[in-house]
Amino acid sequence: MVLTEKREGVLLLTLNRPEKLNALTGALLEELHRTLAEANRDPAVRAVLLTGAGRAFSAGQDLTEFGEEKPDYEAHLRRYNRVVEALSGLEKPLVVAVNGPAAGAGMSLALWGDLRLAAAGATFTTAFVRIGLVPDSGMSFLLPRLVGLAKAQELLFLSPRLSAEDALALGLVHRVVPAERLMEEALALARELAQGPTRAYVLTRKLLLETYRLSLEEALGLEAILQGEAGRTLDHEEGVRAFREKRPPRFQGR
After folding, report:
1. 120 — pLDDT class (breaks 50, 70, 90)
2. Which of 115-124, 177-186, 223-232 has the weakest average pLDDT?
3. Beta-carbon neighbour count of residue 240 at 10 Å?
4. Of 54-68, 85-99, 212-226, highest mean pLDDT
5. DSSP state of 128
6. How far apart are CA 136 and CA 56, in angstroms?
7. In Å, how far are 7, 123, 199, 238, 253 from 242, measured between CA atoms?
8. What is the three-class DSSP state of 102?
9. How far apart are CA 95 and CA 197, in angstroms?
10. Using 50, 70 and 90 to split pLDDT, how confident is the model at 68?
11. Nearest to 206, CA basis, from 216, 219, 187, 215
12. Strand ordering across the sheet containing 115-119
């Protein structure tokens, strides 16, 4: 259900239920969590690229998984929360390529990319209120930070269908590219990150997520702590050496 492929330091993860628009199930979430954990442990993986197979990124939760039973959403969301924690705490930079519709929890997962690309025909919708639910998979945390509280309320209450261009204007994605070039450009971007100071990217993500809830004094303190950690990396030493020698740096992600 999750295809994996390594390309020049990039781990390509593909949600692979194209016949169901890559709708999410407990089994798929468990597999995605496992592959993300393996990526963290693999020094050959310098960046991760997440996309969907077929014509969709992900339609969100597969409601047919529950059959006729009333789901225990609180228990079920533990699977989602583990994946969100793995994405937000991933020790490698994460690129997301949204190749088609991203709805509900599928949209939530897409938004966790450090850099997000969308095919020109991709669409986004929060979807939760359409079935009488509240946002989950971290959307309530991340969406207001991306678009502001007022726009987040509109997107969550009305659940409009956003085009890729709408998403770009709102800051939900960083680039919109022709569908036939999506994976080419996403892989090129992931390779660029894979060749960079990956530890600095991860620490920057952590800093940006944390400082939203901190006072200025606390943010300055966290900057100092994480700068100290970055300053002890081999990549920092190489960056300074390359600057002095007037050559491109050769980062190792350490």
Report:
1. very high
2. 223-232
3. 12
4. 85-99
5. G
6. 20
7. 26, 42, 17, 6, 15
8. strand
9. 15
10. confident
11. 219
12. 2-7, 10-15, 47-52, 94-98, 115-119, 175-177
